[in-house]
Amino acid sequence: MIRNIAASIALASLLCAAPALAMQLHATVFVDASQTAMVAAGDDFFIALPSNVTTGYSWTASGFDGKLLAYEGNMYQPPLGGLPGAGGQQIFVFHANRTGTTAITFNYSRPFESNAAPAKSATFTVTVQ
Fold first, then answer.
1. What pairing do the DSSP bridges indicate for beta strands 100-109 and 88-96?
2. Quick one: three-class SS letters along 19-45?
3. Would you list the DSSP string of the chain?
4. Count of domains observed in the chain
5. Which of 29, 71, 88, 128 could cross-link 96 (Cys pair, CB 3.0–4.6 Å)?
């Protein structure tokens, strides 16, 4: 499933504060790892995963081809309602450098528990056209 969400607005306001991360204002947001993420070479795109920083867990990305994709960073978007302890989402920003297919593996774990297995994992297949 592909959707443009409120994250685009939040990221646009963040970009005003960090012009070095200049991106397209309407970049695509991918949220469903079961479907291939199709992007065009030269485009920026986001992958949003449900997250809750109050638990100590966070997502990390690994395993992708750095020649095809450039990792631009990630940020946490708190829940819209602002309820204490409620989960939000962690948004990863990538730039598609050139054509090809790669997989990005995300692991949800606590950084301070280095020997523990991830609580969750997700793998997104990205095809750059």
1. unpaired
2. HHHCCCCCCEEECCCCCCEEECCCCEE
3. -EE--HHHHHHHHHHHH-GGG---TT-EEE--TTS-EEE-TT-EEEEEEEE-GGGT-EEEEE---TTTEEEEEEEEE--SS--TT--EEEEEEEEE-SSEEEEEEEEEE-TT-TTSPPSEEEEEEEEE-
4. 1
5. 128
Tell me the pLDDT tens digit for each residue of 78-112.
988 877 788 999 999 999 999 999 999 999 999 99
> Which domain, by its residues, includes 7?
2-128
Domain CATH for 85 = 2.60.40.2020
Chain-centre distance for alpha carbon 78: 14
